[in-house]
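ok so i was messing around last nite and threw this chain in just to see what happens. nothing serious, just curious
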Amino acid sequence: MANNKAAKPKAARKKSAKGGSGGKLSRASAVVTLVLLTLFVVFFVGRQLFLKPSAPASVEQPAKPQPSKAKVEKTSAKKSKKTSSAKTKKAAASAKKQAQKPRSKTASAVALANIVPERDLRPQFDYDFTAQVIEHEGYVVSYNADYKVPNWVIYELTLGETLGNLKRTNNFDVDPEVPKEQMAQLSDYRNSGYDRGHMAPNADLNWSQTAQDESFYLSNMCPQGHDFNAGIWLDLENQVRVWAERDSAVTIVCGPVLPRSSADAKRMKRIGKGKVLVPELFWKVVLMPYGDDVRAIGFVMPNHNEKVGRKNRPLSDYAVSVDSVERLTGIDFFPALPDNIEDEVESNYNIKSWF
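result:
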């Protein structure tokens, strides 16, 4: 019995000892876990704090390769070229826009203020031509002694001159300024079947007796078919007076289309002993310098027409640009005009602004 009693406390102590050892291990395990957790937290936080990338300014970046000098100059030149091209296009666009702006009446008047029509606006030939330029009171004529007709006649018609009312005289005569042997004669027209057709019409020059008398000089005449002279040509003369009344003044240049080669000259008809050339076509150019805008128009007409008494074709059917008349005749019109005005008025015509 004594042994049993002695054994029981030993077993109890053994069990107790075992339990105490387990408690120590558990506490140690908890401490280790806590330490490890603490180290992990410290490590993680420290990594975020101390291993976070610094600001870009403090980080040393690898140096970028620099372009060579030649490449820099090439790039610069390319940019300069693009800039220059852009400026050129911009300037061109600006110039085009400026050109499209309508010119003011004042600007046109200033540009033309010092121009004397009969002197400064005289036509010029683009090739050699026989010509004797004669200044009369109401008109200036370039006379061709080879063909015994005018190359051209130029005059200005003002509003005041359209009010002239001197009675027509019909005193046809030779021009005293032309040598007799070079002058067409009254006999050349007699029984020829052709009228002595005025280039500068008497009705535009009846504001002065001298001007009217000189309008009947044969240097101002061309052989014209009667149907033409008293038909569409007369209609055009009357229309020009309407324009002069409407716009205060117009400048008129007119004449025959003359042959530009000896072959053409031989082919064309002549009348009288003086061999006066009979033109196949006539032209007239009208410049309106003092209206709302400077403009010009040309007309080309054949030397024949419907018989008098029948309704003539409208004048607009014969209208052309001044450039067209220049190409047909080899004459340069209005050379004294400022280039920008000359180019515009000679290349364009607007029928609605005339009729």
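not much to say yet. The first helix runs from residue 2 to 50.
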